[in-house]
Amino acid sequence: MKTNTLDIDRRNFMTKTGSSLLAATVGSSLALSALRAHATSSAVTQTNQTQSAITPQKALQMLKDGNSRFLQGNMFQRDWMQQVKATAGGQFPFAAIVGCVDSRVPNELIFDQGIGDIFSIRVAGNVVNDDILGSLEFACAAAGAKLIVVLGHTECGAVKGACDDVVLDNLTQTLAKIKLAVKAVSGYDSNRTSKNKRFVQAVTDKHVEQTVERIRQRSPILWGMINNGKIGLLGAMYDVHNGKVTFM
């Protein structure tokens, strides 16, 4: 019986192709499993031991790394229910974020943090009053957080309201705290309203700077911890256009 060379070549081609596809599939599956395993193991739920080992400088780097992962779309995978159970008996966050109530700036997401990682204090215009100061004192002096970040953001509606001298019931008192920054920003005489984006951003930057200083001045407990190197305090700015946090 004569062997058809074309049939042999076809069988050889199919065998090699099938083997290559199988190898590629297995390789891809193993790589994906390894990636998932790495991501899951990297998302550590904070404990008393891990929190104690974190310095203010390390806490800052953890936030920078988290925002970098957020920007790259390479956020850690987390077992949320595991974190719920792991933190049920106590919390050990490494940082406290004073941010705006703006829905575009979810602190845990933009810093890629999980349950029990950070204290998230949110109020319109990231202003500070006695209640916020008390919360920060609890976060650092009582609960062990190592870093305070005052997080402003671009296109802030509260800042724009302060620039335009908006009056609206209780919001008026909130905006009054931001108006201190409006007054402190010089220049822009041709247009000192929310229509001037450069002016609004200058006020936003100044407001973060003033809020950081206000925390130093109004909380002896936190000021003492800062002087002793137990905690860090700094400002940052989140860009709603691209997701990037710039530390000031």
Task: Write out key terms for the chains shown.
2 domains, 10 helices, alpha/beta, 248 residues, 5-stranded mixed sheet, 11% strand, Beta-carbonic Anhydrase, Chain A
> CATH top level of the largest domain?
Alpha Beta
Largest sheet: 5 strands, mixed
CATH topology of the largest domain: Beta-carbonic Anhydrase, Chain A
Average pLDDT: 89
Question: What do these coordinates show?
Answer:
It is a single chain. With 248 residues, this protein is of the alpha/beta class. It has 2 domains: 1-42; 45-247, Carbonic anhydrase (Beta-carbonic Anhydrase, Chain A), CATH 3.40.1050. It is built from 10 helices and 5 strands; from the N terminus they run H-H-H-H-E-H-E-H-E-H-H-H-H-E-E. It has helices at 5-42, 48-52, 56-72, 80-86, 107-110, 130-142, 157-163, 171-184, 197-218, 220-227, and strands at 95-99, 118-122, 147-153, 232-238, 245-247. Strands 2-1-3-4-5 form a 5-stranded mixed β-sheet, with helices on both faces. The longest helix is centred in the first third of the chain and has 38 residues, at 5-42. Residues 21-28 and 30-41 have low confidence and may be disordered.
Q: Topology of this protein?
A:
Blueprint: H1 5-42, H2 48-52, H3 56-72, H4 80-86, E1 95-99, H5 107-110, E2 118-122, H6 130-142, E3 147-153, H7 157-163, H8 171-184, H9 197-218, H10 220-227, E4 232-238, E5 245-247
Parallel strand pairs: 1-2, 1-3, 3-4
Antiparallel strand pairs: 4-5
Helix pairs in contact: 7-8, 8-9, 9-10
In short:
By secondary structure, the protein is of the alpha/beta class.
